[in-house]
Specification:
The complex is a heterodimer.
Chain A (H helix, E strand, L loop, with lengths): L2 H26 L4 H25 L28
Helix pairs in contact in A: 1-2
Chain B lengths: L18 H7 L1 H4 L4 H11 L6 H29 L4 H6 L3 H7 L24 H25 L3 H37 L1
Helix pairs in contact in B: 1-4, 3-4, 3-7, 4-8, 7-8
The chains are: A mainly alpha, B mainly alpha.
């Protein structure tokens, strides 16, 4: 994985972590409008970052959730647990 | 339905083999307070939760626990994959090696395989949510003991992330318990 690819992946991981944490919070505080606005904003940024990454480096999601591809990138290495650093 | 995302929730860095550390960390894969137990417990309890918030919390925390299971597996896999047999023997992982080579299997730190008896799904939401709060505290404590045992700062960093998530989950289950209590009280009144 080249440094730029890794940098974009770290951004996605940070954005999605924020979305995960806000999801759990909103489950028990559904009326919190500020949290909902933050969730909407981070979701928008996450979708953008995911699309950008996947157009350059291939699918991050399967089952029809990634942008159109000209070759089957889903099985490109590395898999997430194949980490050297 | 679940969609797999081809990335870890939190990055894992492992620079050198450390089967001794893997032997202890594997308990958070297949031990009594581990991530398999957590995810399966919450995902199976959600069917009999009485409120929509509770169904949401159990679905979402159960799903996050699956991602944590993958992080723990990534740690264990990378800590043993290049370990020489001499290190595996010295770490007391030779019995595990006899059964699994360097594969990742659901056992506790002493090699006892995972059992559904670790978890409960009682049909009583108050009992289940109390179990879940206790489970989060037990998992938090386990991560603390693992942090005490860890001699690899990169691994410790991941263990700290996982420990913090247990704290957040405990908080959300506590709020869910209050929501369910209020719902049951209202039901009794009207």
């Amino acid at each position: 994985m080249n440094p730029e690819q890794k940098r974009l992946l770290r951004i996605i991981q940070a954005l999605e972590f924020t979305a995960i944490d806000l999801t759990l919070y909103l489950d028990t505080h559904p009326a919190d409008e500020r949290a909902l606005a933050e969730y909407n904003e981070v979701s928008r940024r996450l979708q953008e970052a995911m699309m950008d990454y996947q157009r350059r480096y291939g699918a991050l999601k399967s089952y029809g959730h990634s942008p159109p591809q000209t070759r089957w990138t889903w099985i490109d290495e590395p898999w997430p647990w194949e980490v050297s650093d | 339905m679940w969609i797999y995302e081809k990335k870890l929730e939190y990055p894992v860095k492992v620079r050198r083999p450390n089967p001794g550390l893997a032997k202890n960390i594997i308990t958070q894969y297949g031990g009594p307070d581990g991530e398999l137990a957590a995810s399966l417990r919450y995902l199976t309890q959600r069917y009999t939760m009485p409120t929509s918030q509770a169904k949401g919390v159990l679905t979402d925390i159960g799903t996050e626990e699956l991602a944590h299971m993958e992080i723990v597996a990534a740690l264990v896999y990378n800590l043993i994959k290049d370990a020489p047999l001499s290190q595996i023997k010295a770490a007391g992982l030779d019995g595990y090696y006899a059964d699994h080579d360097r594969a990742v299997y659901f056992v506790n730190a002493e090699g006892v395989p995972w059992t559904a008896a670790y978890i409960q799904s009682k049909g009583d939401p108050i009992a289940d949510l109390h179990e879940n709060m206790a489970a989060e505290e037990k998992a938090r404590a386990t991560y603390e003991w693992l942090i005490n045992l860890s001699d690899d700062p990169d691994v410790t960093d991941v263990l700290r992330f996982l420990r913090e998530r247990e704290v957040v989950h405990f908080q959300r289950f506590g709020e869910t318990l209050n929501i369910v209590h209020e719902y049951l009280d209202r039901k009794r009144t009207f």
